[in-house]
Design goal:
Blueprint: H1 2-15, E1 26-29, E2 37-39, E3 43-53, E4 59-67, E5 72-73, E6 78-83, E7 87-97, E8 101-103, E9 107-113, E10 118-122, E11 127-130, E12 135-141, E13 151-160, E14 169-176, E15 182-186, E16 191-196, E17 201-210, E18 216-224, E19 231-239, E20 271-281, E21 287-290, E22 298-305, E23 310-319, E24 333-342, E25 353-363, H2 364-369, E26 377-382, E27 386-388, E28 391-396, E29 400-406, E30 412-417, H3 437-443, H4 459-477
Parallel strand pairs: 2-11
Antiparallel strand pairs: 1-3, 3-7, 4-6, 4-9, 5-7, 8-11, 9-10, 12-13, 13-17, 14-16, 14-18, 15-17, 18-19, 20-23, 21-22, 22-25, 23-24, 24-30, 25-29, 26-27, 26-30, 28-29
Length: 478
C-alpha cells in the first residue's frame, strides 16, 4: 500500500498536478548616473536600471535608493517594476540637496524580487554639494536731475557675496526696464555678465536718453542667473525736468551743455556745446566713449587703460573760438576748436592709459565752400605750441568725411585744414601719452587771465635808428 501511494504521487508530479518550487531570477543593477556638482537646495535626478534573467511567471521587484552621504532628501526611495520575461527596466529618483560637503560613494541602489532574488550596487562617483551664491546689485546715475533730451549714464555693480567655496552664479543677466518717455542710447539690454565667482563682482553701464521725462523718474533694473533661481532688483531715481542753468538740453551732452563754464576753466561764453560720457575702466580692455549730436564733431575717444579705475569720464567742450587755454591760433583754416579732458586733475597719463585716439567728422559742404581737399585735414593739439597729429581718413558718406587721429594726450584741440602737411609733430619722447596735467590742473575751476606787457618792445631800436639819422645829416653838412 505504501508503495502504491509513492507511485501515485510520482505520477501527479509528472503530469504537473502538484506545483514545484521555481528557482529565483537573476537580478543586476546598471550604472548609476547623476550630477556630481550640486548646489544646496537644488534638486537633481539619479538614474539607473534593473535587469532580470531566468524570469518565471510575473516577477515584482522593489528597487530602493539609499543616501549614504546624509546630504539629500529622497521623497520616494522605493519603486516597483515588474517583469514577465527577461529584460531591463529603467528607474530614476529626484532628490534634493540639504547640506554641503563631499562624499565618495553617495548612493546605493538595491533590488529585491518577490521570488527572493536580490542584488545591490553602490555608486562610485564622488558628489560635492556647495553653498548657494548670494547675488546683490547696486546702481547709480551720473546726474541727479535731468532735462528733456539729456543723456544719463546708469551704472551698476553685481556681486556674489557668498563665502569662498560656494557655487558660482552662472548665466548672470541684468535687465533694464525704462519708464515711459525714456530710451536706450548705448549699451545692450539685457546685459549678459556670464559667471560671477564667490567674492567677485561684475559691472557695466547704459546710457539712456530722457526723451520726455516726468518730474520723478525711476530707472529699475533686475538681475537673474541660472544659479540661484529667482531675481534681485534695485533702482535709481532722477528728478526732472531739470531747471539748473548748467544742465544741457542738447541730445549730445551727458553732463552739461553750451553756456556753462568748463572744468578746464574755459570761458563761459566761449563754450558752444559740452558733452560728458562715463565708461568703466577695466585693465587692458579698450575703453570707447561714443558721442552723438550735430554740435559735436567728435564721435569717439578711445584708449586702453593700464589699470582698473572704476568710472572715468571724458569731457568735450566744443568752442566758438580758440580755447582760452592757448596763446596762439592753430595753423590753417579752422573747422572747430575744442577741449578734450579725460578724468579729473590730469588722470590720463602714460602710467594709466595707452594708445589714445580721437575720431571726428567734417562736413563736406564746409570742405567744398572753402575749396579744401579732405587729405589736408588734420587734428591739431596744443601743449606749449600747436602740433599736427597723425590723421587718416577712415570713411565718408554723402554729407561727411570721417577721420581718426592718434594723440599723445588730451588738452585743447582744433580741426584744421593745413597747406603744409609735413609740419613736424611732437616728438615721440616728448608726447608719450601726456595729457598736460599741469595745464589742466592749473586751469580747473579758474578763468584764463589775459597777460599784459609793461615793456615797450622796439624802443631801443627806434632810438638807435634816430641817432644814426642825425649823425648822417650832420656829416653831410660838414
Amino acid at each position: 500500500m505504501k508503495k502504491l501511494a509513492v507511485f501515485l504521487m510520482a505520477i501527479l508530479i509528472a503530469v504537473g498536478t502538484i506545483p514545484t518550487a521555481s528557482a529565483a531570477a537573476s537580478l543586476s543593477i546598471g550604472s548609476i548616473s547623476y550630477d556630481t556638482n550640486v548646489v544646496k537646495d537644488e534638486s537633481i535626478t539619479i538614474t539607473s536600471s534593473v535587469s532580470a534573467a531566468s524570469v518565471s511567471g510575473t516577477l515584482t521587484v522593489d528597487v530602493t535608493l539609499t543616501d549614504n552621504s546624509g546630504q539629500f532628501t529622497i521623497p520616494s526611495p522605493t519603486q516597483q517594476v515588474q517583469f514577465t520575461s527577461d529584460g531591463t527596466k529603467a528607474v530614476s529618483w529626484t532628490v534634493t540637496a540639504t547640506s554641503t560637503g563631499t562624499h565618495s560613494s553617495p548612493f546605493t541602489v538595491s533590488a529585491s524580487g518577490d521570488d527572493d532574488s536580490s542584488t545591490a550596487k553602490t555608486a562610485s562617483s564622488a558628489i560635492t554639494v556647495k553653498d548657494r551664491p548670494v547675488l546683490s546689485v547696486s546702481s547709480s546715475t551720473d546726474i541727479s536731475s535731468v532735462s528733456a533730451g539729456q543723456e544719463v549714464v546708469l551704472s551698476y555693480v553685481v556681486s556674489n557675496s557668498a563665502s569662498s567655496g560656494a557655487a558660482d552664479a552662472t548665466n548672470v543677466k541684468v535687465d533694464l526696464a525704462l519708464p515711459s518717455g525714456w530710451s536706450l542710447s548705448s549699451g545692450t539690454d539685457p546685459a549678459s555678465l556670464g559667471t560671477i565667482a564667490p567674492g567677485a563682482s561684475s559691472s557695466g553701464s547704459w546710457t539712456v536718453v530722457a526723451d520726455d521725462p516726468s518730474s520723478s523718474n525711476t530707472l529699475p533694473l533686475s538681475v537673474t542667473s541660472t544659479i540661484p533661481g529667482g531675481t534681485v532688483t534695485t533702482s535709481s531715481s532722477v528728478v526732472g525736468p531739470s531747471t539748473s542753468s548748467d544742465t544741457s538740453s542738447s541730445s549730445g551732452g551727458g553732463g552739461g551743455g553750451g553756456g556753462g563754464g568748463g572744468a578746464s576753466g574755459e570761458e563761459y561764453e566761449n563754450i558752444a556745446h559740452k558733452a560728458v560720457k562715463k565708461v568703466y575702466m577695466q585693465k587692458d580692455v579698450l575703453a570707447e566713449y561714443e558721442f552723438t549730436g550735430e554740435e559735436n564733431p567728435i564721435s569717439i575717444v578711445s584708449f586702453t587703460p593700464k589699470l582698473n579705475a572704476g568710472m572715468i569720464d571724458v569731457t568735450i567742450e566744443v568752442l566758438h573760438d580758440t580755447s582760452a587755454l592757448v596763446d596762439s591760433k592753430p595753423n590753417g583754416k579752422v573747422y572747430r576748436n575744442m577741449n578734450i579732458w579725460v578724468g579729473k586733475g590730469g588722470w590720463a597719463s602714460s602710467s594709466t592709459i595707452s594708445g589714445p585716439e580721437v575720431s571726428f567728422s567734417v562736413e563736406k559742404s564746409w570742405l567744398e565752400e572753402n575749396d579744401i581737399d579732405s587729405a589736408n585735414v588734420r587734428l591739431m593739439r596744443y601743449t606749449t605750441e600747436w602740433n599736427q597729429l597723425e590723421t587718416a581718413i577712415a570713411d565718408e558718406d554723402s554729407d561727411f568725411v570721417y577721420f581718426t587721429a592718434k594723440t599723445p594726450g588730451f588738452s585743447p584741440f582744433a580741426i584744421s585744414a593745413v597747406e603744409d602737411t609735413s609740419i613736424v609733430e611732437a616728438s615721440e619722447d616728448e608726447s608719450e601719452t601726456s595729457d598736460d596735467t599741469g595745464l589742466q590742473e592749473e586751469n580747473e575751476g579758474t578763468e584764463q587771465q589775459e597777460e599784459t606787457s609793461n615793456g615797450l618792445p622796439g624802443f631801443s631800436a627806434l632810438t638807435l635808428i634816430g641817432m644814426l639819422a642825425v649823425a648822417f645829416v650832420a656829416s653831410r653838412r660838414k
